[in-house]
Automatic annotation (TrEMBL):
This is Magnesium transporter MgtE. Acts as a magnesium transporter. SUPFAM superfamilies: CBS-domain pair, MgtE membrane domain-like, MgtE N-terminal domain-like. Homodimer. It is found in: Cell membrane; Membrane. The lineage of its organism: Bacteria, Bacillati, Bacillota, Bacilli, Bacillales.
Amino acid sequence: MQRLDKKSRGKYAEEILDFLRNENIPTFRKTFLDLHPMDQATIFTVLDLNERALLYHYISAGEFSSIFQELDYEVKLMILNELHEAYAADMLNEMDADDAASFLAKLPENTRENLLLSMDDTEEAEVRELMTYPEETAGSIMTKDYIQIKASFTTREVLEYLQKEGPSAETIYYLYVVNENEQLAGVLSLRDLITHEPSELVEKIMSTRLATVTDSDDQEEVARMIQHYDLLALPVLTKMGKLVGIITVDDAIDVIEEETTEDVGEFSAVRGATDEDVTAFQAAKKRAPWIVLLMFLGMITASTIEQFEETLEAIVLLAVFIPLIMDSAGNTGTQSLAVIVRGLATGSLDKKGVAKTLWREFKTGMMIGLASAIAIVILIYFLYGNTMLAVVVAVSIFLSLSLATVIGAIFPLIINKLKLDPAIASGPFITTINDILGLLIYFTIATSLLHYL
């Protein structure tokens, strides 16, 4: 299977498209089908309606299924309307069951049912089973295309079985050994299979130290486990230990990407609006509530300043440093927020301990605050020649940054304890809270020392 680099993809694509447009079918099929499915999908997306119709005619439903799996949902939906019902059913039969289930679950009920009823009975049953699992669980992303063997098999028998069943499995690197009750008893790797004598029994060489998940486990936890143990696949069991599917590393990567995108959306208060296909209206609809909420929080900031109006009237120069105090505290808190959210997402926070992490963030804030305070003292002294003003701003910066790191760290921890996504403690929200805190510290110190200024 050939893979194209970015530089040669465009030129090579034009050559393949010329074969299709000129209906040089043998050459087109040979060159096009030799490509990786992702490159095939890239080429497919530049075809117009007539060219796509030609491709459907010259590429079988089974061959097209690997291309279809690589397309975005919106493109898949458009393509589905172009396909003959029998062709679409054959394509879905050839797709990985988990990918087919993921796509069909998003379709309108009538369309979904018509497609399911036109599929093969076995494939339909597998897809329907996968669709019964709640979203974002291990069951919803697992595949049922795996190799299952018995402990009484010899390695020779397993190899013969692989030759027959291997082509239909999503992966054959791990072979799953089950007992008479369909419960997982062990795993045999392909390496162990081919490095032992043909007469060796599976039960003698299989591994019984297993990493497993249940079908109700959260998909993010599953992806984290695959990443932690460097696995190519992970078996999925019921609560009774029955093997019902596997989750492969490519699905884990998709989950990590999906969860990361979701966290970035939460973190920046743009959840659901990060997709490039989202229209301006849809993006505004999703982002506006956060902006309005933050606007009202900003009113608290304004009222905080108003409470110290007399202090500002007495020393107008204090107003110059308001943006500096607010920005420094907000930015420092957001940094701590990012550290904690990442720690919770990767599981590293559990290993280090919450108290230790909070203490580290507080010390970090103190060090950053001290460095900033020294810099601001020097700057204010040379610009304004007011030593006491420099001290007020410097102490305010030091205290604000020290506390901002703690606030940025504590908020996501509290939200996580409430069983919510810690990323919803968004950057703008933490920034606003720390703005208010920084202003309170600044004006309290300035008011206390007003007669020295």
